[in-house]
Design brief:
4 copies of one chain form a homotetramer. The relative contact order of chain A is 0.14. Helix content of chain A is about 75%, strand content about 0%. Chain A has 10 helices and no strands. Chain A is mainly alpha-helical. The interface of A and B includes residues 72 and 75 of A.
Chain lengths: ~190, ~190, ~190, ~190
């Protein structure tokens, strides 16, 4: 089984996730600046999630370039990742509407954490397929960035109960870390 | 006529179905845990439907791998399947919002039943195309799993009027049965 | 310029149109049969539109099989068709919510009419591309079905002001006419 | 890294953007003409945005035809363009609901401006990839149309505070300018 349809389906789901988030930015009833201002936190949370979902798309794109075979386990690991990503529009909307207060920020972190864990599971499932492209193992290496992200989320979630802005700062920092596409994989492909 | 565009269109529709379901999880107005708790049944019904739609995508993916030719009848059998799947977000939302009470659980079972029947019709339509890949018949065999599913749904729907949790248990059991991708087809393809 | 990306984009838009229509079937608040019954006209209008959009997808699929070249004019004729189809979820929802009363049924007919006209324009734009596949002209012939449809819609729209059910009967009859995929094109392709 | 998956993902996102805009046209509760009339400005703003997003899809289609290689920078420049386009349904809905009054018209112009700037950045990022197809530079030339558009938006935004209809006239004029697909690129491809 090759990766074409997995990529196509994942692209479809990720494209929908990244786009329907905008439906959480409800059109305000007034035409004034005062009507627009309360939407600023909603817009900011949208920007953060757009970047995160974009990062997942980019990394998924890179990952599937080195994967040559998929099996049922990989298909489900991929759906598992898409499940957690699909919750991002909900947690994004909740966080934005409540102006980045404690619980919404913590729950947002939980979806990031679970998506991060799901991505790690996907990589392992892909590596475990017999006859997998040897470039994949080489490209992933020790997955330092993945581990740093998971540890960061694990720190940020309880920290939200101290200060939700500290958690936001960590989410932004992790996004920065990933913003650059995965050089490990790019290097091997070159 | 080959299967490429049928797959692409089906992937698109299934990707949208699996993703817009999340729009039924309405962002709560409060920022507290109390505001979030009523969403738990909504989330649980979402998880169940996500797994079901994922199973359909997986099986569809496998099915189309053994199909080499499609005709007008197969196109419509496929649209018929997509129709019933497209109702899943509605019945999922209704079941979740009403905390798995009798009628919503029964109606949810009706959409599962009709999708199961539609899938069987799709297989038969594909088998009936003159010059079809002989691997398909071999891969499908007696379709025991499909028949078990339909009988299970037919049992679960009236059972909801006794106890909706029994019906849910049956839906979960059928999902478990299908969770493993169709080995019959995988075996033939190997 | 070949047809691959036009097909992919059209498939995407049509897949979204056919699926988001279900979002117009709002989850009712009660869990009883009484809460569900008012949705029956909404569901019926959804079924009608699902079949119509399915017909357009099928015919579009067949059309693009005989088209070998597209130019800017074809791209815009295609977007024009997608524009009218994109209004179908709105007119479907309005017709269903108002239980097939006069004005919503007439306006629904207008979107069908405009989509029918747009499809004719698309065919002509495709035929006009220099060096187009000669099979296309042969496959389209005198486009009797297309003309019958347009005349039917032109009859059904004013008729809604006499009886909206007569108009609905005409819409259903036209759908029946197209239900069978375009044999003209299938014959030439064989 | 080739352009196939970037095109597929962009097509997906653009297809969703162009289609979910229609969800901003809320089904009115009455069945009369009076219930429908207030939707006319909403529909007009939808038409304008449909044409704009259609133009972006057409130009993106043409652009990707001359691009042979993409790198991480191009992927992000592309996501940046999609981000601004994804805000179009929101600003379209706000402008339509408020009957083309000052602030919504100005903000709508801001999204057009930012999308225009993002498109220019995407072109530059594509040109900067080592070993890029030389046809791209040739096809883009001095990008007169892109520059005219950006200057037009920069004029239209403050002008909305004088008369929002002047701004709308400019948005329509720019759309007209782009309506014809980019001949520069078409010429080189021929």
């Amino acid at each position: 089984m090759n990766t074409t349809r997995v990529e196509a389906f994942s692209d479809g789901v990720i494209a929908i996730i990244i786009t329907i988030m905008v439906l959480e930015i409800k059109v305000p009833h007034g035409e004034t600046l005062e009507a627009l201002l309360p939407l600023i936190p909603v817009l900011l949370s949208y920007v953060l999630s757009f970047v995160y979902v974009g990062i997942y798309w980019n990394n998924h794109h890179h990952l599937m370039h080195t994967v040559s075979i998929v099996n049922g386990r990989v298909l489900w690991a991929n759906l598992h990742l898409l499940f957690w990503l699909s919750l991002v529009p909900f947690t994004t909307g909740w966080m934005g509407e409540n102006h980045f207060t404690t619980l919404p920020v913590a729950i947002y972190g939980v979806t990031l954490l679970m998506a991060g864990v799901a991505y790690t599971i996907l990589i392992r499932a892909a590596l475990a397929v017999p006859g997998q492209n040897h470039k994949l193992a080489q490209a992933i290496g020790n997955d330092a960035k993945g581990n740093i992200s998971v540890v960061s989320y694990l720190t940020a979630i309880p920290l939200a109960f101290v200060s939700s802005w500290l958690s936001i700062a960590i989410y932004v920092a992790v996004a920065m870390l990933w913003f650059v596409p995965d050089r490990r994989i790019e290097k091997v492909l070159d």
